């Protein structure tokens, strides 16, 4: 050992430096001159395995920097062998086997109090926890009220060494047991008890655990509790424990909607409320539902939260009648209380008290009447939580709410001021509704949707006073986009008045508007326009005579706006509940009828007896049967619904051939080029069937650049006749090429014309005039029970029933027809009938030397029923312009 070191391994300089007081100038740095700073190595290798060297006496190893460790340095040696035998089983590390397992002990330690004359020591109760996973110990003291001392964790969790002379060992599970004393850093703790897990764990280790001992009482703590409890009165007050319902039903509220009908009293009203029942304490709160402009102050609570008695008697009792407590005079007189010689006691039994029944949750239900301090509230409905509560507790399933039939108050309409004369009526109304001047908001959606919907009517003056006005004719246009009206006067010879605008486009008010009274103006609506209507427009009365095809179709499509175009409404003019009522109408119009047929009034105007009659006769019969209750527009609607339209004349293939060959001849498209097209057709026809589909036909003609109009070529490809017997709608291209060959199969040369006119010539439309009406279908719709349509021709000479009479019974005599009116009657045999035909003679194209187009010379004419007819070739032009008579029924 060096002379500079003492037996404890500390240098003399260090001993002298440490003995000096810690003052400025006496601090020394003991690391001056040191050349080693690393920690000593206690590990080594033995046969390639790392092992701990000097495990028996590690204290001989030098410390940090090679310094010799003092004798009091901890000796990290292997623990001695336990006196308890080891258990069987797999060897698992302690930190894994005893993870989150703690031995808990209750104990105490005594703190001496020498400065207090009242106590010698104070007992501190503490909790000792031993962690099995790493043999650490933690000691805590539970906090006490107003202790005045730092409490909580006394010793933090760590491994605690044993007291000297065994300071090189640590506390383990063997040192803790009930009834033991342990010395932790100089404080002696006495263990009094442990929990069940600790007792079972120690018993499994073979350590017997005594019974738990009681903790000693602390005098200072008891005196503090006595001082605190002495502040409360020791009289036996009556107390009701309400903590149970509070803990179970806190924040649970039953919500009901109710009303209070106070209209029987003066200035009373029907008022609505929300009632809240609090399940925690049985209190009720009432809130009123304040409606806008009700006239009541919007208080948040109508009746504040409190218990509501069932019987509202003596709401404000006299003083002393109802008291929360009953006082008993134990001894002494009443007047001796001033001298202090009387004693009183609270009656816990409440014998003299008054029992008050309050509303409970079982008293509330939909339809129940709750008396809330004299006001009868009727419950009408509840929320979902309330319904679920009553389902679970009272098994109630019916929660049908009560409907409150409250009359809606009539809101007074503000009086609109009269028209000021500035701008339009709409401008004045907008300026009255708002202080800020704004333009009138228009319905742009309606304007965009109905921009092209214009209703056109022919009109004349109604009952003119001057004869010159009787011949004037007008066209009235009604614009559906903005409900405006425009009147255009037609040119008429020998009148002396120019044609042009009679009324510019504007909104027209109905007559009878009085602005000085303050009435709103009423404008003409779509329902006011129908054929036969009389319109008073700016003091001029017009009668609508007719309408164009678009107007009639539009009105029939929008029958909800135009009731006169509703076919169902028109048929209601004729009751059709049974045939007797229909016959009654007919008899009222034509008088008593014979029993032969009810249709003689219609059939007498039907010369061919085919159920078709003239339009004029049909109109006159409708007016007679309906007693003039039908308007002209309704008659027009029925005529259009039951009209006999002429069949379409079909394609004029001669005209089409003439036009196509004329175009090919003009462009020198000869048969050589047609032969090339035929070669292409044969290429697409490998079977040599002579047929080709229309798609290939159109593509081939377009690829060959055939000089035809596009619309004309598409029409030719789409409508050329299909080959006979072909089910695939294919075309015989040999016939087509022969049809177009102007050299070998020439057609008359056509006059050059525009393609629009060409398409009209090829496929003309039938005339728009309705000439004949199927009155038989009309009567079948009016009278659904009607069967015998033409009784005068029931059976033919062959003895078989005719097609018009499906009710002819088999085996009946010839000429016999049952009549619903007169029973059975004999009728003469009918002759073979000639069916009626509605035919339109098509136009044809004559050679170019002819002057214009003309109808066929063999076309016959008849008297037009409605004035000037329309030419079937040139639709829209009258016969005066076209100079060709229109065809009619033959």
Entry summary:
The chain has 890 residues and is of the alpha+beta class. It folds into six domains: 94-225, PH-domain like; 243-316 and 355-407, PH-domain like, CATH 2.30.29.170; 438-565, PH-domain like; 568-647 and 770-826, no CATH class; 653-762; 839-890, no CATH class. 21% of the residues lie in helices and 18% in strands.
Structural summary, described in words:
The chain has 890 residues and is an alpha+beta fold. It folds into 6 domains: 132 residues, PH-domain like, CATH 2.30.29; 127 residues, PH-domain like; 128 residues, PH-domain like (Roll); 137 residues, no CATH class; 110 residues; 52 residues, no CATH class. The protein contains 22 helices and 28 strands. The chain has a 6-stranded antiparallel β-sheet, covered by helices on one side. A 6-stranded antiparallel β-sheet has the order 12-11-10-9-16-15, covered by helices on one side. Strands 20-19-18-17-22-21 form a 6-stranded antiparallel β-sheet. A hairpin with a 3-residue loop joins strand 27 and strand 28. Helix 17 runs antiparallel to helix 18. It is elongated, with a radius of gyration of 60 Å. It starts with 11 loop residues before the first helix and ends in an 8-residue tail after the last helix. Its main location: cytoplasm.
Secondary structure layout:
Layout: H1 12-19, E1 43-46, E2 49-52, H2 94-97, E3 102-112, E4 121-131, E5 136-141, E6 152-158, E7 181-184, E8 187-194, H3 196-204, H4 219-229, H5 243-249, E9 253-261, E10 270-278, E11 283-288, E12 303-306, E13 327-331, E14 343-346, E15 369-372, E16 375-382, H6 384-394, H7 425-433, H8 444-449, E17 454-461, E18 473-479, E19 484-489, E20 500-506, E21 534-537, E22 540-547, H9 549-557, H10 567-571, H11 579-590, H12 600-603, E23 612-614, H13 615-625, H14 632-641, H15 653-666, H16 671-683, E24 691-692, H17 694-703, H18 710-719, E25 731-732, H19 733-740, H20 755-762, E26 772-774, H21 775-782, E27 816-819, E28 823-826, H22 879-882
